[in-house]
């Protein structure tokens, strides 16, 4: 299976595992396997902040300077990282790509148009350009 279809699959899983009715930033659960870090509740974390797992994974991979892959509902990072470090990056992601910079509500959506990425707030209508990962 190629990389793209793996991402597709990860994305579909998120919809299948709609575990959160309300917005919530969950702490990661996981363990170390040798030098790797395995986050076991990754799809749930992504579902609860209502973002595609593939997008969050890409962000974490870049921020943590680690290669990353999603396998079933787990995220596997190629470095040994504490959950505290991973949680900090998820908070950063939420601030950048989920919460509205104007009203601070999480009722937002990411849209791509004209090669740019926008965060649009469904609560107050605010729309800002965000960095593409
Ligand atoms: Zn807003």
Would you kindly provide a written description of the structure presented here, covering whatever features stand out?
The chain is α+β, with helices and mostly antiparallel strands. It folds into 2 domains: 3-98, Defensin A-like, CATH 3.30.30.170; 100-133, no CATH class. It is 35% helix and 24% strand. It has helices at 3-16, 42-48, 53-63, 83-97, and strands at 30-33, 36-39, 68-71, 74-77, 108-113, 116-121, 127-130. The strands form 2 sheets. Strands 1-2-4-3 form a 4-stranded antiparallel sheet. It has a 3-stranded antiparallel sheet with strand order 5-6-7, with no helix packed on it. The protein is globular, with a radius of gyration of 15 Å. The two termini are 23 Å apart. 24% of the residues are buried. Zinc ion is lined by residues 100, 102-103, 105, 121, 123-124, 126.
What's the structural blueprint in terms of helices and strands?
Layout: H1 3-16, E1 30-33, E2 36-39, H2 42-48, H3 53-63, E3 68-71, E4 74-77, H4 83-97, E5 108-113, E6 116-121, E7 127-130
Antiparallel strand pairs: 1-2, 2-4, 3-4, 5-6, 6-7
Helix pairs in contact: 1-2, 3-4
Q: What is the topology, as strand order, of the major beta sheet?
A: 1-2-4-3
What small molecules does this complex bind? zinc ion
Computed Rg: 15 Å
Overall mean confidence score, pLDDT: 90
CATH architectural name of the largest domain: 2-Layer Sandwich
- Which class best fits the helix and strand makeup? alpha+beta
* Fraction of residues in H or I helices: 25-40%
SSE string? HEEHHEEHEEE
What is the number of independent domains?
A: 2
**Relative strand content:** 15-25%
Unreliable stretches (pLDDT < 50, length at least 5) are: none
Task: Please tally the β strands and state the result.
Answer: 7
Overall 3D form: globular
What is the CATH topology of the largest domain?
A: Defensin A-like
Discrete helix count: 4
